[in-house]
Amino acid sequence: MAQKDTLTITDNRTGKSYELPIEHDTIRAADLKQIKVNPDDFGMMSYDPAFGNTAACISRVTYIDGDKGELIYRGYPIEVLAEKSNYLEVAYLLLNGELPTKSQYDQWVHDITHHTIVHENIKRFMDGFRYDAHPMGMLLGTVGALSTFYPEAKDIFNKEIRDIQVHRLIAKMPTMAAFAYRHAMGMPYVYPDNELSYAGNFLNMMFKMTELKYVPDPVIEKAVDILFILHADHEQNCSASAMRNVGSSLPDPYSATAAAIAALYGPLHGGANEGVLQMLKEIGSVDRIPEYIKRAKAGEFRLMGFGHRVYKSYDPRAKIIKEAAYEVFEAKGKNPLLDIALELERIALEDDYFVQRKLYPNVDFYSGLIYQSLGIPVEMFTVMFAIARTSGWLAQWIELLEDPERRIARPRQIYLGDKDKKYVPIEKRG
User: Fold this and answer.
1) Cβ count near 429 (within 10 Å)
2) Three-state SS for 20?
3) What local confidence, expressed as pLDDT, does residue 40 receive?
4) DSSP 204-248
5) pLDDT tens across 348-370, in order?
6) Looking at 115, 183, 308, 315, which residue is catalytic?
7) Beta strand 70-73 with 76-77: parallel, antiparallel or unpaired?
8) What gap in Å lies between CA 96 and CA 172, rounded to an integer?
9) Which residue of 15, 43, 128, 281 is 20 to 30 Å from 416, comparing CA positions?
């Protein structure tokens, strides 16, 4: 009997059977609507809180195999890209589908560096934030405000105009991020130095003091670049989904990116590496790790930096970051929390409780240690994430715009509330 790429569902309420086509191991949720008890019913829906098993789009940007611990950008394993490419190369890849030729890369770098300067009014906009404003909140507000500086950006189906906005966002994100940091520190803003690399220029705008020319440490510069590559995209995560959902109503890319930043701002998404540092500080010493693990197993709290919604093996990004961390510590001195982190990882990976639950270190476990060693305050960790993820968000956004099945996002609900309450005038409600 020949195999059929269909799924047969029998509704035991009616005895009727339905044959649904299967494509890419998936059925279309809309095909369930034909399953009805009465002809005037809406039809069957699927219920999937937090979209744990629902494909909301077809994508060719990023592939993840959580069981094997694989992360692939446009066909290239993350390990290869982290070793052999730089962030701007990877950004080009995500947005264009292929790695650039030498001439394409040179033009791309020129297009990005040409847009690193922000309008002077952006500086004044930032000056309006309180002295203790969170840098991520400042970035969120400022990116949203950019839509008012570039009204032509609303013409999102004009590729030439759209490309310029892409260049602007990738170029200006490090500038605005560094300005947010300098504002929080009470220090004067540092303008971009377009002779430096993407990562090097960011470090310049963050840390330049009185020297005439800031020269980044090549080890630090490389580590930041690798971190940017590793965080560039991660399939349909919360912030990418926010980018697509908001983008489906066809606003300008600055507004959609602001929505993605807002999603990233949450502690369950971009703020997880901050939680790791807090946990390591709370443990305080290697001797206290067994006691801490015992409490975690008892359900008092979760081990931060372990486990992932998608990865059920070692996060491939964590392996790369761990190697980069050693190089940074060699250049900047060892982070005092490193010994605690290494011992915590060792004990957890030998404990059946964590192994059986597939709770392996994720990307956040070591990234915070690197950032801290670079002198980057905790409040900036999520901002660093946003810089890197901008190229991925934009790639997801463009893919959405070019999708022939694109529609405005409009999830359904299961309504369980009242339907026939009688109205009582306020004077009679007791």
Assistant:
1) 6
2) strand
3) 92
4) HHHH--S-SS----HHHHHHHHHHHHHTS--SS-HHHHHHHHHHT
5) 888 888 888 888 888 888 888 88
6) 308
7) antiparallel
8) 20
9) 15
Output the average pLDDT for the chain: 93
State the Cα torsion 247-248-251-252 to the nearest 10°: 40
Backbone angles phi, psi at 72, to 5 degrees: -130, 125
Contacts 24+ apart (CB under 8 A), 179-182: 179/118, 179/122, 179/123, 179/126, 179/205, 180/126, 180/133, 180/135, 180/136, 180/138, 180/139, 180/142, 180/380, 180/383, 181/135, 181/206, 181/377, 181/380, 181/383, 182/206
20-to-9, 38, 40, 87, 211 alpha-carbon distances in Å: 8, 20, 21, 43, 68
Question: What domains can you pick out in the chain, each with its CATH number?
Answer: 1-47 (no CATH), 61-401 (1.10.580.10)
* Segments in 248-286 forming alpha helices (H): 253-264, 272-283
Q: Which entry of 269, 315, 339, 418 is annotated as an active-site residue?
A: 269
Give residue 285's identity as a one-letter amino acid code.
S
* 8 A C-beta contact, residue 359 and residue 212: no
Q: Are 260 and 171 in contact (CB under 8 A)?
A: no
pLDDT tens digits along 169-219: 999 999 999 999 999 899 999 999 999 999 999 999 999 999 999 999 999
pLDDT in tens, 370-410: 888 888 888 899 999 999 999 999 999 999 999 999 999 99
Beta carbons of 341 and 365 less than 8 angstroms apart: yes
C-beta atoms surrounding 213 within 10 Å: 9
Residue 308 appears among annotated catalytic residues: yes
In eight-state DSSP terms, residue 301 is: S
Residue 8 near residue 25 (C-beta atoms within 8 A): no
Residues of the chain with pLDDT under 70: 1-2
Gap between the Cα atoms of 62 and 59, Å rounded: 7
- For 363, the 3-state DSSP assignment is coil
Backbone angles phi, psi at 74, to 5 degrees: 50, 35
